[in-house]
Amino acid sequence: MPEYATVTYPEADPPDRIFKRIIGNSAALESVLGQVEQVASTDSTVLIEGETGTGKELIAQAIHSSSERYGRAFIKLNCAAIPLDLLESELFGHEKGAFTGAIAQKIGRFEMADKGTLFLDEVGDIPPALQPKLLRVLQEQEFERLGSGRTHKVDVRLVAATNRNLGKMVARGQFRGDLYYRLNVFPILLPALRERREDIPALVSHFVKIFSHRMKKRVESIAPDTMSAFQWHSWPGNIRELQNMVERAVILSQDGMLHNPLHNQRTGSAWEDSDPALILETLEEAGWVVGGPRGAAAKLGLKRTTLLAKMKRLGISRPISQEGTEMVDMARESIC
After folding, report:
1. Picking from 175-184, 218-227, 262-271, which range would have the lowest pLDDT averaged per residue?
2. CA angle 87, 89, 95 (to 5 degrees)
3. Alpha carbons within 13 A on the beta-carbon side of 49
4. Nearest to 46 by CA among 29, 63, 67
5. Which of 11, 30, 165, 237 is most buried, with most CB under 10 Å away?
6. Buried b (16+ CB within 10 A) or exposed e, 177-191
7. What is the DSSP string of 271-296?
8. With respect to CATH, is domain 27-190 assigned 3.30.1250.10?
9. In whole angstroms, what is the distance from residue 143 CA to residue 113 CA?
10. Which CATH architecture has domain 194-335?
11. 181 band by pLDDT with thresholds 50, 70 and 90
12. Cβ 138 vs Cβ 158: under 8 Å
């Protein structure tokens, strides 16, 4: 009988401390948490970089909760979600009558975050015209509301995040260099989920507990081929994509068992855009066994026939000698 991963249900959740919500103990994640502990006790500006869905907001909250500002306001703003003509007002506020539609005074996020922390997500989307004003408030800790000549002093710790390469944007003239250097005082690069695969089983179990509780469904075990498929999927959407896929799996679960929802993904899904080099890596990890519960197909969340078709299309075949191994290495290089 196959061995299953067990999902436990504690009687009560631990206190809602922010570090309890950061799941995993991989070396890559531990390195990030070490950086959080180093910078949290300072007031230095932090720039969190990483792909979409890697948990940048959670790390920002960890920095705040580990600092002396814990207990003060933690204000957040997604710069990409605000129309450009309203972003300045969201950041700095405005006076009544400052512009058409300004029917009352508005307090901006910098004022709200006074003595606390302001988290600016997608900071790379701030338009060039607004970047000098952001630079000023970071350097001088002062600003004026729109429609007012009165200067407001604030004490705000800024944590910014981006999934864009700000250095390249500076080189292209799309982002101010002086603002970039002011934001980049202490950079933290979050690893993609594919770079911390050993954390996936813990993340899956964590999300299973959350969604099974919400849906009032009892999921007691996770089939080994399901966990293997989760662990070896490419996850271009990172933790956010994994979370959504686990939610789907819980919806489809029957008889207390979580089954593999990746089998149901259609051609043209994110897997089709994944790195072909992952197939080589997975085949080598599986000893070039394609089928079966421990084979490469299960690890990748694919049917055996689907993986064989992909291998044929990519010209990937099992090496039968040292010469064959060298051919695989050459194939890897051509893919990269």
Report:
1. 262-271
2. 170
3. 14
4. 63
5. 237
6. eebbebbbebebebb
7. GGGS-THHHHHHHHHTTT--SSTTSH
8. no
9. 13
10. Orthogonal Bundle (1.10)
11. very high
12. yes
The mean pLDDT of 213-230, rounded to a whole number, is 91
Residue 2 has pLDDT above 80, yes or no: no
Cβ-based neighbour number of residue 335 at 10 Å: 15
At 101, is the secondary structure helix, strand, or coil? coil
C-alpha to C-alpha distance for 65 and 74, rounded to whole angstroms = 9
Higher pLDDT, 91 or 320: 91
Phi first, then psi, for residue 75 (nearest 5°) are -105, 135
Q: Are 271 and 233 in contact (CB under 8 A)?
A: yes
Spell out the domain ranges in the chain.
Answer: 27-190, 194-335
Structure tokens, 92: 């700095």
Cβ pair 135, 168 in contact under 8 A: no
pLDDT digits (tens, 9 = 90+) for 12-27: 333 245 677 899 999 9
Q: Which two tokens stand for residue 213?
A: 């509780």
* 10 has a pLDDT exceeding 50: no
Give me the pLDDT at residue 295, please: 80
